[in-house]
Amino acid sequence: MARVHPRILALDSLRIFLLEAGEDADRLPLVILHGFASSALAWTGIIEALGTDRHVLAYDRPGFGLTVVTAPHWQGLDPYAPDTQVPIASALLDCLGVHRCVVLGHSMGGRLAYELAAARSERVAGLILVAPAWERPSAPWLARLLRRRAIELVGRALLRTTSPLALRLGQRLAWGSTAPPRRADGALTALSVAGWDERLWRVTCATLATSKMPLPALPRPIPTLMILGERDRIVPNALTRELTAVWRVRGAPLEIFTFERSGHLPHLEETSRFVETVKRFLEEVEDGATPPR
Predict the structure, then answer these.
(1) Nearest to 98 by CA among 79, 120, 114, 130
(2) pTM for the structure as a whole
(3) Phi, psi (5° rounding) for residue 176?
(4) For residue 75, is it left (φ>0), alpha (ψ between -120 and 50) or beta?
(5) Using 50, 70 and 90 to split pLDDT, how confident is the model at 191?
(6) Residues 6 or more apart from 276 whose CB is under 8 A from it?
(7) pLDDT in tens, 4-33
(8) Which top CATH class is 5-287?
(9) Contact (Cβ atoms closer than 8 angstroms) between residue 233 and residue 264
């Protein structure tokens, strides 16, 4: 297992919490993008396992985990908005000197990984999409309502009160089988940091305020690995299977694996198989061979 190093990286008005392991400059780095209401900490075990022969990193996006926003705007943009996440990821990779990499995205991080590849295809050598959530909720009228000060204060108080119960219910839904007791997935740590409720409220409002947009087309074929949980009750697999059918017709280099015992968290529920599948794909990308499966 590789040793994981946490650190804080200043990126203008952002203080990005980052986990890293591995330093092999001859292998493609792996960048991990977590899902909604999650954290890089949820990927610690995967970083340890995959960081033995390459640089692996994960970071907390604004609004989640341990990343801190110190100003209302980042380079003139709302740091919590979905449309700002690709520019932030690009700036972070520039700062770290990562010029070409494989990007792994889980749940809503899966759509972000795809959007990053569409916007910066020259630096994305491969995509790994784990239980991807393609559709973002959009309700601008509700975002305007939730941003009213009185409603925000009441809503954040309810968040703080109900978060332990919501976390337990969320874990039951996310796992395809019974979740191990006190499973460390990063959520508890994130909820212990002062101001987590305000950050989550802001990212929720910013997401609701964003109009629905179709997925952009990739400017070139990018080798893609899709990992789905057969028992996923958070994000149904139907839309992903429809999209992948279209991509295959267009000749996309695509591999799909369904983990029969997993729900929304294949990386936690079937970790050994997950690591083996990802390692094989990384080697295929580096060798220039990604057979469809």
Answers:
(1) 120
(2) 0.93
(3) -70, -30
(4) left
(5) low
(6) none
(7) 999 999 999 999 999 999 987 789 999 999
(8) alpha beta
(9) yes
